[in-house]
Design a protein that fits this description.
alpha/beta; six-stranded parallel β-sheet; Rossmann fold; about 15% strand; about 425 residues; eight-stranded mixed β-sheet; single chain; globular
């Protein structure tokens, strides 16, 4: 089947590869000519494990093409919209790019076409799309619009497409239910649990899922600080809590905070919706505040461990991506910590195996280094903020030789305790006894 996909970002490229591997022919479109030129060479503009190799394989097999055209080729049955919904002047989850893409497709696609919106929408997003459809239908028959949010994790996107937790599709109008069911059928070879519902409910499923995950992370982070205060071990505490099947251990992991393009923004979007419709949601409201206060507490804790004011201190920040396995720094806890530390008067020098370039674009004030040893030179402390596997095998003897201080503060429980101590360094781990 011929598919047309709009938006060559992380979601779009993983979705394109996923459908191509299911045997469909996918044409990927993006208005960024430099991005399309890179893809045409078989190179991925983003880092996602296995993505570049998969792109090349599907292009070589003739199942994946790229273009800057905004309209689907003749014979295309489905167009899939994967453009961003970033925070805009109107608040989180701006639908401006989605509406522009859908309007273009409605004006050009044949009536038997189906437009699939995979971008994350606010709860009122389906109503905005329905108005576009109604306006087009007033002039004659037009394509149906169906929502289909993704539940993929950056760093594990290809696997999450191939083995999805669920497939959810939504109709804007009841008469479009058949189109929503047809979209769900595209995923039938994956044998995933499937839910077809109204698009408002589907939008809330996506938002509520991510905010609940953010709440679990925030809960674990607060437990970590409590463990620091009372001398408990957060790994043991969360392991014991997660053994309860009603709770589960997924996302019950302490760290420097929630990051990425989804969880922090949606943890803001849901409380704003609640306030707008007059529904008190104190638990949901607290998730975003908890994340911010946790990052402030982590920065303050580093100052306490240093035993001196942050003002004038030099900190080596290892890890800038919001998580390992990606070069994405959107809402990165590491960059939030860098801002907190700079606000306290510290100098921060960052290093990341993949995200140096994206971090510098996101935070022009951030000083970066090409390797961990250079980042640590003359630093009073090393702060580990991303759980890159490479940080498990750092040469701490080399780092100790260039450090001015002796503190390593690991917020991800990733470094080798024995290696750090053998180098004569003082190790502190968030929420854990070491």
């Amino acid at each position: 089947m011929q598919l047309f996909l709009v938006g060559a970002g992380p979601v779009g490229l993983v979705t394109a590869v996923g459908f191509a591997r299911l045997g469909h022919h996918v044409t990927v479109s993006d208005i960024d000519r430099a991005r399309i030129a890179l893809l045409a060479e078989g190179r991925s503009p983003i880092f996602e494990p296995g993505l570049e190799e998969a792109l090349r394989a599907e292009m070589a097999a003739g199942r994946l093409d790229v273009t800057t055209a905004g309209t689907p080729p003749a014979g295309t049955a489905y167009s899939i919209v994967c453009v961003g919904t970033p925070t805009g002047p109107e608040g989180p989850l701006s639908t401006r790019q989605v509406e522009e893409a859908v309007a273009t497709l409605l004006a050009t696609a044949p009536p038997d076409h189906v437009i699939v919106v995979r971008s994350t929408l606010p709860v009122e997003g389906p109503d905005r799309l329905a108005r576009l459809v109604d306006a087009q239908r007033a002039e004659g028959p037009c394509a149906a619009v169906v929502t289909n949010p993704e539940f993929m994790r950056e760093g594990a996107g290809l696997r999450d497409f191939d083995v999805p937790s669920r497939v959810v599709t939504g109709w804007l109008r009841p008469e479009d239910r058949a189109a929503a069911e047809a979209v769900a059928d595209l995923y039938a070879p994956l044998n995933a649990p499937t839910l077809v519902a109204d698009a408002r409910s589907v939008a809330l499923i996506k938002l509520a899922s991510n905010v609940f995950l953010a709440a679990k992370i925030a809960f674990a982070n607060e437990l970590a600080r409590l463990c620091d205060a009372v001398g408990a071990d957060v790994d043991l505490v969360t392991a014991g809590v997660g053994m309860d099947d009603r709770i589960g251990s997924a996302f019950l992991s302490a760290g420097p905070g929630v990051g990425g393009s989804c969880l922090p923004e949606q943890a803001l979007a849901l409380p704003l919706l609640s306030a707008r419709v007059g529904v008190p949601t104190p638990l949901i409201d607290a998730v975003s505040r908890s994340n911010i206060s946790h990052q402030q507490a982590v920065a303050a804790r580093l100052g306490t461990l240093l035993g001196r004011p942050l003002n004038g201190a030099r900190i080596a920040l290892l890890g800038l991506a919001f998580k390992a396995g990606t070069d994405d720094v959107r809402e990165s806890p590491a960059l939030a910590l860098a801002r907190e530390l700079r606000a306290g008067g510290a100098t921060v020098v960052g290093y990341d195996p993949r995200a140096l370039e994206t971090a510098c674009r996101a935070d022009p004030l951030l000083e970066v280094a090409p390797d961990p040893v250079t980042a640590a030179r003359d630093a009073d402390a090393v702060l580990v903020a991303t759980e890159w596997p490479a940080f498990r095998t750092l040469d701490w003897t080399q780092i100790r030789a260039v450090l001015a201080g002796d503190l390593v503060y690991d917020t991800r429980n990733v470094v080798e305790v024995a290696a750090v101590r053998a180098a004569g360094l003082r190790l502190e781990v968030l929420g854990r006894r070491v």
